[in-house]
Amino acid sequence: MNKNTILIPYRNREEHLNYFIENSVPLLEKHLDGFKCFIIEQSKDNQPFNRGKLLNVGFKEFDSEYYITHDVDLYPKKETTSLYKLVENDITRIFNGHNKSLGGVTKFKKSSFSKVNGFPNYIWGWGIEDRAIYYRSVVLGIKTSQNYTNMSNFNFGTHKRNNSGGYKGEMKKISQREDMFFNNFNEKEQYNHIMKSGLNNLDYKVLKKEYIHSNVEKITVDI
Known about the structure:
Order of helices and strands: EHEHEEHEEHHEHHEE
Oligomer: single chain
CATH class: Alpha Beta
Structural class: alpha/beta
Strand order of the largest sheet: 5-6-3-1-2-9-8
């Protein structure tokens, strides 16, 4: 079992991935005990990206004491590495976009990720999954640190966001449903909602495994 495992959901971001491996991996190797990095690549280009489901796959495939879910375009600075070491909470928010998010860079104890049943598998497209797992953690009483939103802690890769105008269509319905689950459902309904989709009914197929660095393994999966 690893101690600190970085999980990076990935598809078609080669420039960002190469920069992360060349610059962030050596830094984290130096400052983080028991460091290992796993890239979970979504194989198909003909379907929307599913960040949450890929991270669930990473949790299933790689055994670790702590999991750090990590966007490929966030590059920590040397002084930021101290946040990666924090262990006093079940969930440590290293960098999240807002107060109801557990996206960006977030550290989970293995037991806590299991307790919240991971991410929902049904969110296809950019966004919402970070808010969904935040809601799950609050409902289940998981001890979570304060939100670190200091942008000076990271360098950022650039890419185009696809929901800058707000959620539309099916994504808007999913967003509203997650908010309703948190704000309007009773305790039993909330628990049933959490258990409806996540680690407990994850379906995927590993297509390829390869080492792309001495401490970085990439798996390609069909989800």
